[in-house]
Give the backbone structure.
Amino acid sequence: MTPKALRPIDLAREHGLSAQAVRNYEDDGILPPAGRSASGYRQYTAVHARALRAFLALRAGYGHRTATEILRAANRGDDGTLFRLIDEAHAELLHERDVLDQVAAALGDLTAAPAVPSGDGRGELSIGALAHRLGMHPASLRKWEDTGLLRPRRDPTGQRRYAPDDVRDAHVVHQLRRGGYPLSRIKVFIDQLRSAGTTTDLEEILAEWRVRLRHRGRAMLAAGAHLDDYLEG
């Protein structure tokens, strides 16, 4: 029996999309190529409907780019790439959870005296030494200083010198940036960290972060069923 032909609008209505969006997804390789009617109109099937459901579910957990690459791999039968993309996304999620735990540990030790890093006689680091320790470019540290996240002193020659508190702040900023937070939100964290007063704002940031990770994990889990359904078809 010939599968029932579906129009772009038939696929679109289920998800509140436009027919053009469905056509664009096909053009981008997210949906497998559609057949054409004698008059040249696209004809989709239940297979395309399952592909679209899988993509939209994956997008919620994996993001648009990764979801696109997963469907493209599925459509060309490249299981190796498909499963590697999924594994990498789960590894990234686990890494972000580890970063969150590190930041939470820093919050739990706000009033502890900072450890003195190796540096000059005053326990200070140069911008190059701190950048090397964080594995980043000195330009990023200068940008953080411009936004008030770091406040190194200047020595008589004008060189930046990072005291233990500055090094601690730089580590926390680095961790939060890896967690996906914008500089404006991180500044709230750093300001509270410096004052070592109420930790309400800090706890709210971490709570929001945990909720975001939970929602992403649940979305990734739910997407698996839709992807499996498409692959089985």
